[in-house]
Amino acid sequence: MKFPFIPREEKFFDLFQASAQNVVEAAHRLKEMVDSWEHVEGSVDEITELEHKGDTITHDIMARLNRTFVTPFDREDIVQLAHSLDDIIDFIHAAADSMLLYKVSRPGPRAKELAGIIVQAAEEVEKVMPQIRKHIVLSQVLKRCVEINRLENVADRVYRAAMAELFADSSDIADVIKWREIYAHMESATDRCEDVADVLEGVAIKHA
After folding, report:
1. How high is the pLDDT of residue 70?
2. What is the pTM of this model?
3. Measured in Å, how far apart are the chain's first and last C-alpha atoms?
């Protein structure tokens, strides 16, 4: 028996939207930091605050899930969506914090390119959230999800190019190790955006 996609607990959607908006803000802070390379410590502090805010939102989702009998969609999907959104900002924070911790030199074109892709993917995640709230139009949701997947593929190519250039051009082993970790964090942020898209695509297909 198929139930209509009309949640009795609307707060879940508000929390998912808040989480997505928080991710977008963190992505922009990272890009601004990488592009300007000024006030790095302050930028990392701002991203850290956003990461903590994301943790609070995720906790609120889990707490609400535990006390809600009728959920808007499958509990497993709610859990995975909440954690995937939280993971995006965790990797954004990890990238920014590593840059500060390791005292790296000014980021180059590949880091800036990855930061830009993270912003684009995060914005697509934010845009798709309202489309699963009510009256799902499957084609619209799938269009956003396909774009997120495309951006993840672009990020993967940029990451591989960045790693190839890093090993080819740098004679400083310590620098290679630092940037290898940073690039990996940035690419992982786009992976988690793709995870969000995969969950939302599944939800849309089930309930359209």
Report:
1. 87
2. 0.93
3. 14
Residues contacting residue 98 through CB under 8 Å, at least 6 positions apart: 104, 178, 181, 182, 185
Report helix, strand or coil for 104: coil
Cα 101 to Cα 187: distance, rounded to the nearest angstrom: 19
Q: Give the CATH number of domain 11-207; options: 3.40.50.970, 1.10.287.470, 1.20.58.220, 3.90.1150.10.
A: 1.20.58.220
pLDDT digits (tens, 9 = 90+) for 15-74: 999 999 999 999 999 999 999 999 999 999 999 999 999 999 999 999 999 998 888 889
Tokens 């309930």 belong to 207
Please tell me the distance from the alpha carbon of residue 68 to that of residue 156, in angstroms, as a whole number: 38
Phi, psi for 119 (deg, rounded to 5): -60, -45
For the chain, domain boundaries = 11-207
DSSP label of 39: S
pLDDT at 171: 77
